[in-house]
Design brief:
Layout lengths: L1 H25 L4 H22 L6 H4 L2 H16 L10 H24 L4 H22 L14 H15 L6 H20 L6
Length: 201
Amino acid sequence: MTSLLDIIELLGTLAFAYGGIVEARRNNLDLVGAFTAAFLSAFGGGTLRDVLLDRRPLYWVAHPSYPLLVFVLTVVVQVAFRGRLPGLGGTWWLITDALGLGLFSAAGVSIAVEQGLPLFPASLFGVITATFGGVLRDVICAQVPGIFKRGQLYATCAFAGAWVFILLQAVLPGAAPVFACITVAAGLRLAAVRFDLTLPA
């Protein structure tokens, strides 16, 4: 399971890092700003999770290739796409963000369950891992974090995916609960965008 979680965190890192670069371009940030937005998007949630769970070293320190990949991705995208970024405001951006949400939700709840946390706090760690990076990114872009605004489901999708993992891991061994969590969280987010699903006012 450890190697699977490493792969999931790497994929989630790249997905959210690209999302940070897209948001930086929307706000006309320079290369330093773009890397900062990408870094916070990719590592903010996992860092908070590791700090709260007292996991050392932090996961991006334990895997130094991760921040290096984010840096290279930022430079390549900034240099190669000086005009409009692929996915800026389009379907690719939504899919990338939804995938990152699902991947990090799975990573967060999996680690929390492995640490022996009670089930409800474990589900919240899935949400924290999946969303807090976006909160930090929005703050440096001088925006109210998107998850705090009334709108289409986002954090709720990570929460639902986390509970799918919790319920399935009690009866199914192996990687099935992880992939189910990713599928539910990402799928629900895409459905929320497609059908304008929101929480009751």
